[in-house]
Design a protein that fits this description.
The protein is about 75% helix and about 5% strand. It contains nine helices and four strands; from the N terminus they run H-E-H-H-H-E-E-H-H-H-H-E-H. The longest helix has about 80 residues. The radius of gyration is 56 Å and the shape is rod-shaped.
């Protein structure tokens, strides 16, 4: 009787309880369409991050505000999320008083959570893009400034003119050096001739044998050679200060040219470095413009949630079966207790009778 009573009570209570239906929606976490630009696109979220976001109070409150009805704590109790191991799939479950309500609740949850994550990712991306645009504009301004400095440097310090001057002075110095070398040879030859003629005239034996005309010719040759020798020496003395001055000018030009070339090379190196950075930022800037034209999508819905045909609560057959088992246990326990109580009562009555007879 207890078993039948429990089963009947479970059946009546199960029928009296409002049915609860559960809708299921699956999402796949994926890389966004433009994931080939990792330095700009936020990384794909992990399953743990997604679960934390989907179950956060802010999401629950947003679901409650859009779905309406109960408090967000009650809404949270009607929602659950599962994530199979080693997969990128998450399963959202929502319960409702009817199939349509459960489908609406799970769809609302999925829409709000994915929209919120995509909004956060877009905000992060926008921050990155703003920083990129700022760096791009800064590098462009710096590059323009350096190019203007290079133009001004070239106008103020015409290195090509200095090189031409150095080339002309070097050529002139080489010509003077060659002339000095030729003059040295000429002076040695003239000195040798003059000395030779003088030795000839100074030799008495030679004078005795020489005629007057030969002596005159020798004297004339000495005079001519001495005159040429004096001219060569004068030319050499005139070239020496010029050569020293040219050499000094060349040294000064070489120092100035080396200093200006070093400054030019340093400026060119800075320009090349900024050009490399600017080119990289320019490519990233073009990529950023492409990213802005394509919405981010980290979640792919797998099918549509199907309205459930059977409620998940209450489970009438299960409740009746549990009530039957519980009734059997209670009935058996009660029967054993009554039998024990009856034996105890009889034992106590027998003991009282013996005491009275005594």
């Amino acid at each position: 009787l207890l078993t039948l009573s429990f089963m009947l009570a479970a059946f009546i209570i199960s029928k009296a309880i409002s049915p609860t239906y559960e809708a299921v929606l699956s999402l796949r976490i994926r890389e966004p369409f433009l994931a080939n630009i990792p330095q700009l696109i936020p990384e794909k979220p992990t399953t743990a991050e997604v679960i934390t976001l989907f179950q956060s109070p802010s999401i629950m409150k947003a679901v409650q505000e859009r779905y309406g009805g109960e408090s967000w704590e009650a809404i949270k109790n009607r929602l659950s999320i599962e994530a199979p191991d080693k997969t990128d799939i998450i399963t959202l479950k929502a319960t409702g008083e009817n199939p349509a309500a459960s489908v609406a609740l799970v769809t609302t949850w999925a829409d709000i959570a994915t929209e919120r994550y995509h909004a956060q990712a877009t905000e992060t991306l926008q921050t990155t893009l703003n920083e990129l645009v700022s760096k791009y504009n800064s590098s462009k301004a710096e590059l323009d400034q350096l190019r203007a400095e290079m133009t001004a440097f070239n106008e103020t310090n015409n290195i090509q003119v200095l090189r031409k001057q150095l080339e002309v002075l070097t050529t002139t110095m080489v010509e003077y050096q060659n002339e000095m070398h030729e003059l040295s040879i000429q002076i040695e030859e003239l000195e040798s001739k003059v000395n030779s003629y003088r030795d000839s005239l100074a030799n008495r034996d030679s004078l005795a044998r020489n005629t007057v005309s030969q002596e005159v010719i020798g004297a004339i040759a000495i005079v001519e050679n001495e005159s040429a020798l004096a001219a060569a020496r004068a030319r050499k003395e005139a070239i020496e200060p010029l050569l020293a001055s040219i050499e000094q000018q060349i040294n000064q030009l070489q120092k100035d040219l080396a200093t200006k070339q070093a400054a030019e090379q340093q400026l060119r190196s800075r320009i090349e470095q900024i050009e490399t950075v600017h080119a990289t930022l320019s490519r990233q800037y073009e990529q950023a413009r492409l990213i802005q034209s394509v919405p981010l999508s980290y979640f792919q819905q797998i099918g549509e949630p199907i309205p459930p045909e059977n409620p998940v609560k209450p489970r009438t057959l299960l409740n009746v079966a549990i009530a039957a088992v519980l009734g059997v246990f209670v009935g058996v326990g009660l029967a054993l207790f009554l039998e024990y109580f009856d034996d105890y009562k009889k034992q106590q009555t027998g003991n009282v009778g013996k005491t009275v007879n005594v």
